[in-house]
Specification:
- There is one protein chain.
- By secondary structure, the protein is mainly β.
- It has no helices and eleven strands.
- The strands form three sheets. Strands 1-2-3-4 form a four-stranded antiparallel beta sheet, with no helix packed on it.
- The chain starts with 9 loop residues before the first strand and ends with a strand.
């Protein structure tokens, strides 16, 4: 796995058997563990990405901060782009009229449910739609 420079803004947000996600400022980047190859951007959050999770079955990852981005882990990996529709990802809670500030991801409850903590310290369960 990539060595993180302690002087940089990079932080390990999530990891699984085959992938890991590095956060650096507002960007969340996906890497393959076997060769530390950068695969793509899986999110960009105003005010920094606060947390990430890689599905226990490696079907998707979730990145949070200003809203939520669900990114499907399948080739070809396409880098996330704000305000662009793509079958590789979907997002919510990120528009000017409906911002959801998410503090962290608590845990994956089931194959398609993830528990998050919002800015008001309210626990919410997200149903992941693949």
């Amino acid at each position: 796995m990539k060595i993180l420079d302690t002087k940089s803004s990079e932080k390990l947000l999530a990891e699984s058997e085959n992938y890991y996600i590095i956060g650096s400022y507002e960007e969340a980047s996906l890497y393959r563990k076997s060769d530390d190859k950068y695969l793509c951007s899986v999110g960009h959050h105003y005010g920094d990405t606060t947390d990430a999770l890689i599905d226990i079955n490696e079907r998707f990852c979730l990145v949070v901060g200003c809203g939520v981005i669900v990114y499907r882990l399948k080739e070809p990996f396409k880098s996330y782009m704000y305000d662009k529709e793509c079958n590789q990802w979907y997002e919510f809670g990120r528009g000017p009229e409906n911002i959801d500030w998410i503090r962290c991801i608590n845990r994956q409850i089931s194959d398609d449910e993830v528990e998050i903590l919002d800015e008001d310290d309210q626990i919410r369960v997200l149903k992941i739609d693949l």
